[in-house]
Amino acid sequence: MTRPTPSTVLTRTGAILASIAMLSVPTTGVAQSARLSVGIDQAARVQLRGPAGSVIVGNPQIADVTVVDANTLYITGKGYGVTEIVAVDTIGRTVFQSEVVVTDGAGLGRVRVWRGGQATEMACAASCSASMRGTSGPAAPTP
User: Fold this and answer.
1) Were both Cys, which of 33, 88, 95, 131 would link to 121 (CB 3.0–4.6 Å)?
2) In a domain, 12, yes or no
3) Same domain, 91 and 130
4) Rounded CA gap, 67 and 60, in Å?
5) Structural domain contains residue 19
6) What is the DSSP string of 83-107?
């Protein structure tokens, strides 16, 4: 049987220490922290790095979340604005955190028709028809 050289012992010790360090790092991390832009009445799929135990929506009038499974969320734009969505695992570690901006979806396929002080949102493809969002009230007075 041969004795290990000092350099072999140091290499093995370094590998063991690196393995221990990797085990001590939590496997869940923030899946996303950048802004997420979602069109109104549109959905965006978010794949989490770890399973979520709870999901928190800052303002549910702006965005909603559907949990498909422990690792998949769909964020739906409900109203114009900015909110934050956070998902945590069962012991409270953040697995997802993002500012969500709900916009008009760049206006693709949508038209707003004004009649006097009342606006009607229209959904358009080959032809246009009134959107489910329907008609808004009187326009705000201009100064």
Assistant:
1) 131
2) no
3) no
4) 14
5) no
6) EEEEEE-TTS-EEEEEEEEEE-GGG
Q: Are 115 and 140 in contact (CB under 8 A)?
A: no
In this structure, are strands 72-77 and 63-69 parallel, antiparallel, or unpaired?
antiparallel
Q: What is the CATH number of the domain that holds 66?
A: 2.60.40.1080
- Of the chain, the end-to-end C-alpha distance in Å amounts to 93
The two tokens of residue 121 are 């949102």
pLDDT tens for the chain, 143 residues long, are 566 665 554 455 555 544 444 443 444 344 456 789 898 889 999 999 899 999 999 999 999 999 999 999 999 999 888 999 999 999 999 999 999 998 876 656 677 788 888 888 777 767 777 766 655 555 444 44
Q: Is residue 7 part of a domain?
A: no
Residue numbers of the domain that contains 113: 107-135
